[in-house]
Amino acid sequence: MIHGGGISVDLPDGWDAEIYRRFANAAMLASDGSAEQTNAVLHAANFALPADRGDFGSGAVEVMRASDLLIVLFEYNAVDAGKALFDAAGLPLPLVSSDFDANGMQRPLPGLLGTQHFFEAEGRAWCLYVVLAEANRDTLIATANEILASMEIFPE
Question: CA-CA distance, 123 to 156, in Å (whole number)?
Answer without folding.
Answer: 9
